[in-house]
């Protein structure tokens, strides 16, 4: 396939898009008080902006991708980014909480298909030995959003106006839309994907094992992450500035972990994933003990971020590479499953806290879930088809 622009240029455009989407998903966590005051709703009600988004990504994303499976990637990316821009303009001008909630639903519908298409295209334009790094590059926009975009959005919302955050995100969307139109190659599908063939993924034991790892194991990350800020405040005794530094270090760890894991070759993904998850589980179990000392608190935040987003590209890569019968759906399913895990983990954490579990007990549960995921990965390693992760010639020359 002849490309007018370099592979790195295309991946950079994808990163801008995933940065904007990541900022949309997570920036609201620092704006809930402003939403409540401006739109006259209880702070507890504003939490729906998070949970509804995650559930919508998990449910609506795959449905939208199924409905659009016959369309070529580039025009579909353009349409999805147009939806994203419109949704954020709606959010920026929302006169009521209900309209703001609707904008979140609208934005969430394009999240998983966009990520899925970007990851699939990134693989298609990459040589076999760079497929994992291509997925990490796409995921990199999200991690950079967590490191820089979310604190920036929270600051702008707190100092000026929360609506400016959504205007900024819409502007990022417009920039990305232009980039997609100019830079992204128009890959013509050799044959139109058949939904019946794509749905054969439901019989793929390799994919189901990975979904189980994410939903039953990796969701423990979100059980603990949901309460990172109150743990830093109540256990470590951090003020606003120190908490901001801690969250920044989490984001810095996320970015570094993401790109380091991108250098892993497909043949050893499973082995590296087992090690990474074991380290992450250990960090979570020991997290509250680190909080007794400011220096070790910062170290723990960094390791938490590195472990969380150092495992994500590996899991994404394994699902996409394993789902050979569903090249059009695999990326979307991967993105949706992670948001399902997000919702499950956050809900579990809230239930534990409501039932008088301490933060230390919650991190123990979270770490235990991660280690359960490690056990599932050992089982996966025994039964998976390892030929799927060898450097098969899938890339376009």
Automatic annotation (TrEMBL):
Compartments, as annotated in UniProt: Cell membrane
Keyword terms: Cell membrane, Membrane, Transmembrane, Transmembrane helix, Transport
Keyword Phosphoprotein among UniProt keywords: no
Annotated InterPro entries: MFS, MFS_dom, MFS_Efflux_Transporters, MFS_trans_sf, Tet-R_TetA/multi-R_MdtG-like
Its membrane topology: Multi-pass membrane protein
Domain Major facilitator superfamily (MFS) profile as annotated: residue spans: 10-385
Membrane-spanning segments: 43-64, 76-95, 101-123, 135-158, 164-187, 207-228, 240-261, 273-291, 297-316, 328-353, 359-380
PANTHER family: CHLORAMPHENICOL EFFLUX PUMP RV0191, PURINE EFFLUX PUMP PBUE
Protein name (Swiss-Prot/TrEMBL): MFS transporter
Origin species: Oceanobacillus neutriphilus
């Amino acid at each position: 396939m002849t490309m007018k622009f370099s592979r790195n240029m295309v991946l950079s455009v994808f990163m801008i898009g995933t940065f904007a989407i990541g900022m949309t998903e997570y920036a609201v966590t620092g704006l809930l008080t402003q939403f409540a005051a401006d739109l006259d709703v209880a702070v507890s009600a504003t939490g729906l902006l998070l949970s509804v988004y995650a559930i919508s990504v998990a449910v609506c994303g795959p449905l939208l991708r199924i409905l659009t499976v016959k369309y070529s990637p580039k025009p579909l990316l353009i349409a999805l980014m147009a939806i994203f821009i419109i949704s954020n303009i709606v959010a920026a001008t929302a006169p009521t909480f209900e309209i703001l909630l609707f904008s979140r639903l609208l934005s969430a519908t394009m999240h998983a298909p966009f990520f899925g298409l970007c990851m699939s295209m990134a693989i298609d334009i990459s040589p076999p030995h760079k497929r994992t790094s291509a997925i990490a590059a796409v995921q990199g926009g999200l991690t950079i959003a967590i490191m820089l975009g979310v604190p920036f959005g929270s600051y702008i919302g707190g100092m000026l106006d929360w609506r400016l955050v959504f205007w900024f995100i819409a502007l990022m969307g417009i920039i990305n839309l232009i980039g997609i139109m100019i830079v992204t190659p128009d890959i013509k599908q050799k044959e139109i994907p058949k939904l019946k063939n794509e749905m054969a993924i439901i019989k793929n034991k390799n994919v189901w094992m990975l979904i189980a790892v994410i939903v039953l194991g990796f969701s423990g990350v979100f059980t603990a992450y949901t309460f990172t800020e109150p743990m830093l405040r109540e256990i470590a005794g951090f003020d606003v500035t120190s908490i901001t530094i801690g969250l920044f270090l989490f984001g810095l760890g996320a970015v570094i972990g993401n790109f380091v894991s991108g250098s892993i070759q497909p043949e050893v993904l499973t082995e590296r994933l087992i090690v990474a998850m074991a380290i992450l589980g250990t960090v979570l179990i020991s997290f509250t003990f680190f909080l007794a000392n400011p220096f070790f608190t910062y170290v723990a935040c960094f390791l938490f971020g590195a472990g969380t987003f150092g495992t994500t590209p590996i899991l994404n890569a394994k699902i996409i590479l394993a789902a050979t019968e569903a090249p059009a759906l695999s990326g979307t399913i991967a993105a949706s499953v992670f948001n399902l895990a997000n919702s499950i983990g956050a809900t579990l954490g809230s239930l534990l806290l409501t039932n008088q579990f301490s933060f230390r007990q919650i991190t123990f549960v979270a770490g235990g879930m991660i280690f359960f995921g490690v056990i599932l990965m050992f089982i996966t390693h025994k039964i998976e088809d390892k030929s799927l992760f060898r450097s098969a010639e899938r890339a376009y020359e």
